[in-house]
Every structure is written in C-alpha cells, then in structure tokens.
C-alpha cells in the first residue's frame, strides 16, 4: 500500500478519536483515494474501528414514508418529480389512514424512527395535522422526522409543537447549478429548525461521478460548520427522462468509501446514514439505514405502496450481515424527545 496514504489515514483516525477536526486538504486526500484500492479497504477498516470505539457498533433502522407525489416546479436536474421532465402526470397522496397503518407496521417491527417525506410545497399545517394524528394514536416513544420544503422559524416551531423531533434537509451538491435554490436558503431553513429545537440532519447528496473531491469536501465541511446532528451519504440515481438519466452512477465501493470518510470527519458528533442501504457502508462506519415506501424522487413509478429499497426484515438481516447490532435511534435523539 502507498505509505503516504496509510499515514494520512492513520493520522485521520487519531484526529477522529480525539475529536479534532479534519482539514479540507485531509478530506480531499481521503476522497481522492481509488475506491477499488487496498488503501480504500484500509480506510474502511479504520472507519469501522472508530465507529466501534465511539458507538458500540450499533446500527439504527428507520423508515421513510413518501406522503405525496406531484410535479414540482423546482425541476432539480436529478429529480424525477421535476415538472420540466414530464415524468409525473397528476397528483397522488397517501390517505391519513394508510399512513397511520404504515407507521404502525414500522413500530411493530421494533423500529423507532419514522420520516414523513413530502414534495417541496406540501402545506406545513397539513403536515402538522398528520403528525398530530400519529402522536394521538401511537404516543411519543419514537422519533418523527420531517423531510419537506423550506422553513422559516415560525413553520419550524409548528413542526416542533405538532410532535416532530427533527428535520432532514440537504444542501445539494452543486446547489444553485443543478437546482434553482441557493445554499444560503438551505442554510436558513436548517438554522430555523435548530432555533426551534429540532434535530437537524443533512445529506452528502446526490453523489455522482461528476462531483470533484473539492466539491464533496466542501459539502462535508459545511455540515460540520452547521453542527448538524447527522449526515446521510446518498448516491445520485440516474432516472431515465431526467437530465442525468444516462449518466453513470457511482459504485457501491465509492458510496461506502464516502460513508467511511463522513464517519471520520464527524467522529462521535453525528450519525452517518447510507442510502441506498448497503452492507459495505455499515461495515465501513455507517450507523443508520432507512426502509422506504410511498412516493420517491429517485424513480418514476407511481406505485405509492411499493417498498423501493429493502423491507424491514431485510434491513435487519443487512445489519447482522455487517457484523453490527440493532440499536435504538432514541440514543441519537436525547434532548429532542418528549414524553406526553
């Protein structure tokens, strides 16, 4: 193996375990490692060691429910819902009763986090009403995350009061280039959620072969500066009919490599999710995966009830195959849960 790369990885491990921040140059160096190399295997091994020391080798399983499906005027270049691409004709929405049944199914499997995923302009009051119904039926002994459009502090507080514990909100890679939104607008939403007392997770998303090590490093650093509680490492899916429909996707090893790097960049300060769910990512430092159902901006099928990644039992098998054990997401939500 390359001695200089091994020395870089060893020094990064030391920093991660002592809560020292990695530099931009160190991140770029790690991201530039060939994902098919021995050095990358070593990087994954070191990240796994760091995870075991700081989190006891636990992995958490959540479930993400796509509430609605409709054309979106934002027309982000990687998203199947973009109005300009014409892949979605009409509007579809899961009924409250269906969502309540899905939440009950998730909880019956022993999992304790549900994400409600909506399109960009889904009404906040409607989302809050839905959360209230879920809390009224199932109580507060699990986490509910909102993955929705932009927020100000007032709408973020509505989510908090309705029973949400967190939001997921990504500053997209090449924000403002592949999307019509600005980095500043995304940051404003995340700060509003933090001010409202919500846990905030971001995403290294959507990762493609077109992104440079510098772009990826800057995105990771941005989340670290924002003090997010988690980061999701998510690949770009090439949906036919979108501008990226014919673009090659990153390999599983590249996704696992970036998961390992995000673990080392955050140490014990954040959770690291991997999407799609991937055993190698869990072996290399990831500690969260999600099962999805309902509308999904990474495909163009209109079957609102199709499980699109893996089922809950399959997710648990993946955790076990990675040599990890199932943990409680509530460990990550200390200070963001309430009992009534």
What is this entry, summarized?
Helix content is 40%, strand content 16%.
Give a structural overview.
The structure is a single chain. Helix 1 runs parallel beside helix 3 and helix 3 packs across helix 9. Strand 6, helix 7 (183-195) and strand 7 form a beta-alpha-beta unit. The protein is an alpha/beta fold and 340 residues long. The model is unreliable at 304-309 (pLDDT under 50). Strands 1, 4, 5, 6, 7, 8, 9, 10 and 11 form a 9-stranded parallel beta sheet that branches. It has a two-stranded antiparallel ribbon with strand order 2-3. The protein is built from 11 helices and 11 strands.
Question: Structural class of the secondary structure composition?
Answer: alpha/beta
Helix fraction?
40-55%
What is the typical, i.e. mean, pLDDT? Answer: 92
H and E order: HHHEEEHEHEHEHEHEHEHEHE
Unreliable runs, pLDDT <50, ≥5 residues? 304-309
Biggest sheet layout: 9 strands, parallel
Number of strands: 11
Number of helical runs? Answer: 11
Beta-strand residue fraction: 15-25%
Spatial separation of the terminal alpha carbons: 55 Å
Rounded to the nearest angstrom, the radius of gyration is 19 Å
Shape assignment: globular
């Amino acid at each position: 193996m390359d001695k200089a790369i091994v020395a870089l990885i060893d020094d990064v491990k030391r920093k991660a375990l002592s809560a020292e921040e990695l530099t931009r140059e160190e991140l770029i160096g790690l991201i530039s490692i060939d994902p098919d190399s021995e050095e990358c295997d070593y990087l994954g091994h070191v990240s796994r060691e760091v995870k075991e020391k700081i989190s006891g080798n636990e992995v958490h399983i959540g479930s993400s429910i796509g509430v609605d499906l409709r054309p979106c005027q934002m027309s982000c270049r990687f998203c199947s819902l973009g109005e300009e691409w014409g892949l979605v004709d009409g509007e579809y929405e899961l009924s409250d009763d269906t969502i309540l049944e899905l939440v009950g199914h998730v909880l019956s499997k022993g999992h304790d986090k549900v994400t409600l995923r909506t399109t960009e302009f889904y009404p906040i009051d409607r989302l809050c009403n839905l959360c209230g119904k879920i809390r009224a039926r199932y109580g507060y002994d699990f986490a509910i995350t909102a993955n929705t459009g932009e927020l100000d502090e007032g709408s973020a507080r509505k989510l908090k009061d309705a029973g949400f514990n967190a939001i997921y909100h990504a500053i997209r890679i090449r924000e403002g280039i592949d999307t019509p939104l600005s980095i500043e607008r995304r940051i404003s939403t995340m700060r509003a959620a933090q001010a409202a007392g919500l846990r905030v997770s971001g995403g290294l998303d959507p990762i493609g072969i077109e992104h440079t090590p510098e772009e990826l490093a800057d995105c990771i650093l941005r989340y670290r500066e924002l003090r997010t509680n988690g980061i999701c490492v998510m690949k770009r899916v090439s949906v036919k009919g979108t501008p990226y429909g014919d673009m090659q996707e990153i390999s599983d090893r590249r996704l696992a490599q970036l998961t390992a790097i995000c673990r080392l960049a955050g140490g014990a300060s954040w959770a690291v999710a991997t999407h799609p769910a991937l055993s190698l990512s869990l072996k290399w430092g990831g500690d969260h995966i999600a099962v999805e159902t309902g509308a999904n901006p990474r495909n163009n099928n209109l079957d609102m009830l199709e499980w699109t990644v893996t089922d809950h039992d399959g997710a648990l098998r993946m955790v076990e195959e990675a040599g990890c054990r199932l943990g409680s997401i509530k460990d990550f939500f200390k200070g963001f849960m309430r009992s009534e």
